[in-house]
Amino acid sequence: MNRIAIKAIVKKDIDAIGSSIQMWLPMILVPLIFVVVYPIIILASFQSGGNNITGNGTEFLLKIIDTLPPGAIKGEILAFPALPQQIAYLFVNYLFSPLFMLIPVMVASIISANSFAGEKEKKTLETLLFSPIRERDLLLAKVLASFLPAQIITIFSALIYGAVIDIAGYRFFGSMIFPSGNWILTVFWISPAISLLAVLINVFISAKVKGYQEAQQLSIIVILPVIALFIAQITGFLFLGNLASFLLGAALFILDALCLRLASKTFNRQKMFLSCH
Amino acid sequence: MENLITMDRVSKSFGHVRALDQVSVSLGKGDILGFLGPNASGKTTTVRLLNGVIFPDDGVIRVMGYDSVKDGNEIRRRSGVLTETASLYDHMTAAENLMFFAKLYGLADDTAKKRSNDLLERFHLSDRQKQKTGTFSTGLKKRLGIAKALIHNPEILYLDEPTSGLDPESARDLIRYIKELNSGRLTVFVCTHNLAEAEHFCTRFVFLDKGRVIEGGTLTELEAKYEGCVTLRVDYRGAITAALPKEAAFKPLSGNASYDSAQLTVATKKQVPAVIRALAEKVDLYRVEQINSGLESLYFEIRRQAK
Ligand SMILES: Nc1ncnc2c1ncn2[C@@H]1O[C@H](COP(=O)(O)OP(=O)(O)OP(=O)(O)O)[C@@H](O)[C@H]1O
Ligand SMILES: [Mg+2]
Hints:
Number of strands of chain B: 14
Oligomer: heterodimer
CATH topology of the largest domain in chain B: Rossmann fold
Strand content of chain A: under 5%
Helix content of chain A: over 70%
Bound molecules: adenosine-5'-triphosphate, magnesium ion
Number of strands of chain A: 0
Largest interface: A-B, 27 and 29 residues
Number of domains of chain B: 2
Radius of gyration of chain A: 21 Å
């Protein structure tokens, strides 16, 4: 493994993101909207509603809480004396986490689509292939160059989200509810697994497409499972407790490992070269 | 002489396109090989094969003793390449680009800095080293591309169309510099369409056509083999037709107020001195010039005979 070369490529790719406002602006703005606007709307609507909330939505949510398996999550929720807090807690702590997962997926997809297909589009990949870098190192560098920024943005997003909830919701909940075990798993276990998967899927997509735009469009595929997860969770079909989250992350990491293996087997130098011509 | 590059009956296809067909080429240390051939004849493909970026379907490639498929990185570590489109990173400055590639080639930081500064200076890019290469003109990019190819002091330098896009001054400067490096035993592999330039620059030539080597050798060797007709352009005043020996074919060209011009063709080079002598006796000669000279006429002659 040639660390210096890998570091140089990672740095180059990250600098490239920094130098293009079309690249980094959406990657900062979209997460910010997620982690600031969402909790404020939730908190504001429940805080203003007082203690007696009604309506179809509420009944639906109550049913979710009701159908939860007895245990940690249900206990946490029911520990709040009043209904608004219970439902708000459900929203900000559990229902949001699959939505939050869109952040690493989105960031990883944007960056990796650009990192591979962009290099193809600008014909710079050929120059890289003429250098004495090993195929595996190149692949690793490219994966890291997308994975690291995605993970960093995810962590910052979580911190901002937590700060917003703890500050804006302190009086409402009567305590600082962030971070909970559930969030630590989301940020440090499932998010890296899923952003890695997004990157690797993009490696394969980029090998098949001509340019960055096309890669970008196809990489939306990765978002679909996350949305499915969200729908599953909100309909109470699948409620990810800590153990389930842990297992989901583990399964994703195994999938990552398989993809990485497949990628390093598939992409010899000639394959990489031909994919850009 | 020890061979630095050996290609032995190498073939390469892309789908149905046979880009190279049984190509054998060898190159000794210190050679400057001119790799000549029309568009799509397989020149760039050869450079890629020699650097192990793509793999041959058939045949063996050895460079500096290494197999191009198995030990590609060993070869690439000691080879520098200017690709057809000098692809650099637009978002980085000239100096950053050089430093980046220096790292890929495993140069230590201080060596890389020194080398990068030297090359920027050598290619007259010092005052632009902090400029993003995305804003460079074609020629500036090419110059930086060559600096990049040389950053790690390679033993073999591949130049794919090195002077296309360069102004005459830069082109001449580049050739002078490469010659200079060559006298320090750098081996050079040049793909080019600029025959006039190649004639003086290269020590040996290989002619490629539709993926096949149709001829190869030094200029002297090739001239001896293809000693064909010689066409002269003559500027003169006087009654030239009377003075003309019968072996020279005459064709008038448009002259100007001060003299007439004509094109004379003789069958072999050997006849040229006699023709000039005969003419000089009877008419005033202002200029005699071989217009189908050297490599260019060889190029066409070789291609004509290969058909
Ligand atoms: N990646 C590729 N996929 C398909 N065909 C290719 C590929 N690379 C080269 N070819 C084909 O191989 C042949 C040789 O191409 P090559 O680029 O080596 O020509 P060249 O001699 O460098 O031409 P030029 O003088 O135009 O640069 C051409 O017919 C070209 O279309
Ligand atoms: Mg070419």
